[in-house]
Amino acid sequence: MTGVAESTRLVLLRHGQTPLSVDRRYSGRDDVALTELGTDQARKAAARLANWPIDAIICSPLQRTRQTAAPLAAATGLPITVDERLIETDFGRWEGLTFAEAAALDPELHRAWVGDETVAPPDGESFADTARRVAQARAAIVEEHPGRTVVLVSHVTPIKSLLRDAMRVGPELLYGLHLDLASVSLVEYFGTDRSVGRLVNDTSHLRSYPLA
After folding, report:
1. Residues with Cβ < 8 Å from 161, sequence gap 6 or more?
2. Is 115 inside a domain boundary?
3. Residue 188: what pLDDT?
4. Which of 4, 92, 173, 192 fits a 20 to 30 Å CA distance from 20?
5. What is the distance, to the nearest Å, from the Cα of residue 203 to the centroid of all Cα atoms in its chain?
6. Which residues are marked as active site?
7. Residue 211 included in any domain
8. What beta strand segments (E) does the chain contain?
9. What percentage of the chain has pLDDT greater than the value 70?
10. pLDDT (tens digit, 9 = 90+) per residue, 139-153?
11. Structural domains in the chain (count)
């Protein structure tokens, strides 16, 4: 069995709270900032991860992930690298809507979308398309950082896609797993032929906050 020291670890950090997440609205490409609570969540996540043996920090291009990554970068002295492929799914016409609002706007399409990863919102992107670009990012990151620990600051769908990829499970994970704001997950890659999920949706650093 390949030793842990030879593996590449990807620490998956979801961004903190935004105004859209407060109301549980679809938040894809809208470039919203963190709330005050979200900023505090980012600081708490940084305090936890700063003592980990981190070698690199990579985030999505959106403001909420950059702001979540910033305290960790300050604590570790590491630069933040942006990877466009880690951006959230494009929800198209449903951007900014609640589940109920999107279902009322496009009832048949929305029903299909919640159970089929190949279905895309109007003018948006399917979960399958998201998974493909995220897999490309993962492969490049693992290749560029062999034996290292890399923090990826991203969004719900890319993180679920990375967990699904590492654990080699089907699309059910996209619909059956909840990821909290500022949660930490961890996947580990041993070369190109073996990977495992080691941690999922850990929020122990946010003990003072209720689950959302």
Report:
1. 127, 130, 131, 134, 135, 174
2. yes
3. 96
4. 173
5. 14
6. 15, 88
7. no
8. 8-14, 56-59, 80-82, 149-154, 184-190, 194-202
9. 95
10. 999 999 999 999 999
11. 1
